[in-house]
Amino acid sequence: MSAARVLMAGLLACPVAACAPAAWQDPFLVRGDSRAAAIPTVSVEHSYTPALDQGRPDSRVAYGAPDTPIYRDRPLNETLRGSIELADYTRALDLAGMMAPLRQAGPFTVFAVPNLPMEQLARASGPSGSVPAPAVLHRALAYSIVRGAYPAARLRQMVAAAPGNRVSLPTVAGGTVLVGRDPGTGRLVLSDGAGGVAPIWIDGMPQSNGVLYLTRSLLGVPPASDDGAPARTG
Prior knowledge:
Blueprint: H1 3-13, H2 16-19, E1 36-39, H3 43-46, E2 68-71, H4 76-82, H5 87-96, E3 108-112, H6 115-125, H7 134-141, E4 145-147, H8 152-161, E5 166-170, E6 176-181, E7 188-191, E8 197-207, E9 210-215
Parallel strand pairs: 3-9
Antiparallel strand pairs: 1-2, 3-4, 5-6, 6-7, 7-8, 8-9
Helix pairs in contact: 5-7
Protein name: FAS1 domain-containing protein
InterPro entries: FAS1_dom_sf, FAS1_domain
Keywords: Signal
């Protein structure tokens, strides 16, 4: 039998799900769901520069960036790659080798970080325009991917029932992240137990393999100043 026939026989005998990496989520087993939320694109608005007198439209509307739709039946890795507002976070996960698990069935809970706080990390890590080293990114973002699905309603119940109104969640990196409630606003907030906090900006959005949150800041890095939308969006 020729090599081509052997290869064809192997392909025909191998089901799609069986030939895929064992831990990847099988899209054929995901129930279709057209419901969607949206991730606002605010970092582009804050980086807008007037065109002045250069013969082109000088308008935030002309160069506005649309919100990114988030569909419930899509996996976390696909949603992250499709969001303009999470472009820097997604790139950082790739560089740190942390994106691959988010293709798996999970479930996972991701506390994603918008572009402006990620830019703060880059500025604090080196010269302008430099990219932090993979090890730096891994340490900075290790808390942001948690094992298990924790929708906002479930987290609030857990926090309300926990001593000190704070719960510890296990991260994929092997550590933990603390989740509590801001006594002033009632909003969920992440903390590292050493004074660092990252308020939740957008509550958990269901995904096919978990839940996606957006935070206002990077845990351990102060929130953006008043010109940064994640620090002041309600």
